Amino acid sequence: MFRTLVAGTLATLALSGADVKPGVPAPPFTAQDQNGRTVKLADFTGKSVVVLYFYPKDDTPGCTKEACSLRDGFDRIKAKGAVVLGVSADDVTSHAAFSEKYHLPFPILADPGHAIIDAYGVRMPVIGVAKRVTFIIGKDGIVKDVLRDVKAAEHDEQVLKALASL
Question: 68 an active-site residue?
Fold first, then answer.
């Protein structure tokens, strides 16, 4: 039984989404933000660099630190020509409360069906929430950088460093 469980978990990991890495087109998506507005990756093509950050759960300690770090660095990120989009498996209602509580100035996209999380290959096995990973997507729709070693409280600085290298 244990071998079957391990084999199934490994198969899930291998099939959990595209190998999204620098140099490949970013998987397209459409989702609702915390205000019920529809947001598409295509909305930003040719206009803005997209900082697409995935996080596990609204209003948890690490995720709150990460969101507040991006909030605090938002003006500097925006000055680099980038937009910030957060994604988790939480629903619109949860995102609305989280965004309001911490005064987040950027869209947080609801992905309760895991479509975006799976397309980017960031779903944690077994528990099903998103890993803490950020994709920097160029105006051309190509992934420019992937930040996997996210430090929640310093994430704005990590993003700014990545943006500076574009």
Answer: no
